[in-house]
Write a structure and sequence with these properties.
Chain lengths: ~120, ~110
């Protein structure tokens, strides 16, 4: 019979490299764009978010870039470590001033970091 | 508790039976979400509760699915007459600001 396999795009990097994970979004009305990390067997975990009126935000070893012209969001991870191996999801939502909305998740990208 | 708690962690049920999945959100969080995740797939939105507002049920796949949130806290997702395609991990999350959502470990549902 047909086996169930992974259908997520995969990014493979070496430890110490910088990683860039991309996401295209569709809803121009979103107020916030968020990145989540999901390790195997666990629920997603918040990494960083960016408000729609910003184009860049930095955290610890991570940077999120937002290009509203082409509706593109990216997550940059500096000096990638094996512990960064996980599935990364982008998400979007509307904030209180626009009438709250649910978090809508993208399809996800698997990041594999080799030592 | 410190985080979002879901129960049971695993549930095996026979096709046609009803199941109830429970979510205890973080105290004080006004937003509560239910998602479904199949193996190797993304998160499929099911339902969203925000404070006292009417829930957003637009993601429920059929009328066999329903959810309620009592007293703005605990939520129960009910699946009636379960089918094999309902097998998945059901994730609950809660949030205070709508952006930083805290997820539970999920309930793995297997319909045999």
């Amino acid at each position: 019979g047909e086996s169930v396999g992974l259908h997520l795009p995969t990014l493979s990097v070496q430890e110490g490299d910088n990683s860039i994970i991309n996401c295209a979004y569709s809803n121009s009305a979103s107020d916030y764009f968020i990145w989540y990390k999901q390790e195997s067997g666990k629920g997603p975990q918040f990494i960083i978010d960016i408000r729609s009126n910003m184009d860049k935000r930095q955290g610890q070893r991570v940077t999120v870039l937002l290009n509203k012209t082409v509706k593109h969001l990216s997550l940059q991870i500096a000096a990638t470590q094996p512990g960064d191996s996980a599935v990364y999801f982008c998400a979007e939502n509307r904030g209180p001033n626009s009438g709250y909305s649910t978090l809508t998740f993208g399809k996800g990208t698997m990041l594999l970091v080799s030592p | 508790g410190a985080g979002v708690s879901q129960s049971p962690s695993n549930k095996v049920t026979e096709k046609g039976k009803d199941v109830e999945l429970r979510c205890d959100p973080i105290s004080g969080h006004t937003a509560l979400y239910w998602y479904r995740q199949s193996l190797g797939q993304g998160l499929e939105f099911l339902i969203y509760f925000q404070g006292n507002s009417a829930p957003d049920k637009s993601g429920l796949p059929s009328d066999r699915f329903s959810a309620e949130r009592t007293g703005g806290s605990v939520s129960t997702l009910t699946i009636q007459r379960t089918q094999q395609e309902d097998s998945a991990v059901y994730l609950c999350a809660s949030s205070l600001d709508g952006r930083r959502a805290f997820f539970g470990q999920g309930t793995r549902l297997t319909v045999v």
